[in-house]
Hints:
Helix content is 59%, strand content 1%. The two termini are 28 Å apart. The protein has 16 helices and two strands.
Amino acid sequence: MRENGLAAGKPEPISDIIIPDAEQASLVFFQKLLNAPEHPRGYTDALRPDETAWLSARIEDLKRTPTQLTHLVPRLPSVLPKLMTALNNPDTPIRTLTGLIESDPVISSMVLRLINSPAMRVRRENIESLEQAVMLLGFSGMREVVSAAMFSPIGQLGRIEGANPLLVHDVWPISLRAANALRLGLKTRSDHQRPSLSSDQAFDLYLSVLIEHTGLIALLRQKPLTGANTSTAYVARFRALIPAYSARIAEAWALSENTIRLIRSAPAELEHLRSQARYFSVACALNRRGTLDQAQFLHLCRQLPDYARGWYDLCVTANVSAD
Length: 323
């Protein structure tokens, strides 16, 4: 028997191992992303005038139309509106869905690449065609993979002046890994565990995690203030803007109203599922970049809920793929 990708057995003592909670892990990630001072949680200071001006400008940006805000993120495939309409309707014929995918060669090849990736692989042998993928995954599985392929261009970020270049390129992998962790977790949870979700509700939850950092990408492309003089107050307000930006951009992409609500403010039970997947994925990134050592990450994974068994392997396969 394996637990979180580890051989089950007597756990090691953890009294001398400090493990960050979800908020601490997220705070450290953003501090390092912006090359800001790593003050502990609870530390307070005041915004500098230039920080206030930058944040005020970003709040004004939110008054623009959702379509205007999409110009702040890398361009997505032109077939996006039709594909989202098809994916949001479980009665969409499979032939219609595959036809839309095949109409864009980039999405088509990305779908097959993701299906055969360690995180989503459904069988040992490679899947060679969309028809084969549909037979194995069905509509529910296909729409998760297609969504991941369709939104992957938002992770194509160039150099962001002043930001940590390694963590900039971790933003999309964190989102994708968290969404995959959530997908696995929903399949692992017992039927009697609440909340009980329909396939459509589970898909909305998956999407809400997959694109929840869209707003972060938009903000990073607006020349954020970074460096040793960055205030803790600025980092906090920067983080607080992300869900609002992500939700507004999601409106332009024709995502379901439920997905947008989940991004803005999910009910407590659903937010717990989202936050656990996000916590794991951010911790994986911090482990890969040397901020969390392996002992810390292993114990963190062991303390996740039972439905998180197998998540550890998502980070291991990511490390192997990166190498």
